[in-house]
Amino acid sequence: MSRTVFITGATSGFGLAATRRFVAAGCRVVATGRRADRLDALVQMLGADKVHPLVFDMRDSAAMDEAIASLPEPFAGIDVLVNNAGLALGTAPANHASLDDWKVMIDTNITGLVTLTHRLLPTLVERRGVIINVSSVAGVYPYPGGNVYGGTKAFVSQFSLNLRSDLHGTGVRVTTIEPGMAETEFTVVRTHGNQAASDALYKDANPMSAEDIAEQIYYVASLPPHLNINRLEIMPVTQSFAGFQVHRG
Ligand code: NDP
Ligand code: 8X3
C-alpha cells in the first residue's frame, strides 16, 4: 500500500504504533503531536522519506493551518486521515470535576478534530480517501467519572456517522474505532502524571496494547474500496459491562 496517511497524536500510544504499522506496510505518514523530540526520534527511526513530522497543538487552529500548508510533496496529498490525538483528564464525578479539564478535552477531542477534518476534507474527497476517527467505548457506555470525556467521544462517533451521510457518493469512507481499555500513556495523562495509578489500573488486567489498536486502524484503512466499516468497538476479553446503579434511602 503506497498511500499518505495523516496521523494525529503520533508521539505516543495508538498514534505511534499506527505510524510504525503504516510505514511497515509501505505508506508515508504525516505524524503530528506537540512533543517535537518524539517526532524527531520517529523520523530518525523510520526515515525522512517515510515520516514527515508536524509539530502543533490540536487546539491551535492557526498553527494547524501553518503546519498543513508547509507539507512538501509527496506528503501533501492525504489519502487517509487518522484522527487519533485526544485525551481524558480526571475521573472525578461531574460535581467535583475541573472545568479547565473539561474545556481542554472539548477543545482537543472535539474542536481540534473537527477543525482538522474540515481542513483536509477537500483533499480527502478529491482522492476518495479514508477517515478513521478514534472514539472510545466511553462514548457509547456511561460510567462514573466519564462525564465530559465520554461526551466528547459520543460526539466523535456521531460526527463520523453524519460525515458518512454528507460524503455519500464521494467514495470517501468513514470509520469510528471505539476501543476499550488499552495500556498507553492515556491513564498517566488522565491522572495528571500519576504513573503508579496507571500501573495499578492495568496490573493483571491484560489490557489491549497500542499495537492491537494500530492493527485495527490499519485493517480498516486497507479494506477494499467498496467496503465501509461504520464503527468498530473493541475491548480486551477482561473488560465487559456492569449494570445500572440504584441509590436507596
Ligand atoms: P496517549 O496519551 O498515549 O497518546 C495521546 C496522543 O494524543 C499523544 O500523541 C499526544 O501527543 C496527542 N495529543 C493529546 N493532546 C494533544 C494536543 N492538544 N495537541 C496535539 N496532540 C495531542 O493515549 P492513547 O494512544 O491511548 O490515545 C489515543 C486516542 O485513543 C485518544 O483520542 C484517546 O481518547 C483514545 N482512546 C484511548 C483508549 C485507551 O484506553 N488508551 C481507549 C479508547 C480511546 P502530544 O502530547 O505529543 O501532543
Ligand atoms: C478510554 C477507554 O474505558 O478507559 O477511552 O474510558 S475507558
Overall description:
This protein is of the alpha/beta class. It has one domain: Rossmann fold (3-Layer(aba) Sandwich), CATH 3.40.50.720. The protein has eight helices and nine strands. The chain has helices at residues 13-24, 36-46, 61-69, 99-126, 147-166, 186-190, 195-202, 210-221; strands spanning 4-7, 28-33, 51-55, 80-83, 130-134, 173-179, 182-183, 208-209, 231-234. Strands 3-2-1-4-5-6-9 form a seven-stranded parallel β-sheet, with helices on both faces. Strands 7-8 form a two-stranded parallel sheet. Strand 4, helix 4 and strand 5 (130-134) form a beta-alpha-beta unit. The longest helix is centred in the middle third of the chain and has 28 residues, at 99-126. The radius of gyration is 18 Å and the shape is globular. The model has no long low-confidence stretch (mean pLDDT 98). The structure holds NADPH dihydro-nicotinamide-adenine-dinucleotide phosphate and 2-hydroxyethylsulfonic acid. NADPH dihydro-nicotinamide-adenine-dinucleotide phosphate binds at residues 9-15, 33-35, 57-59, 84-88, 108, 134, 136, 179, 181-182, 184-186, 189, 210.
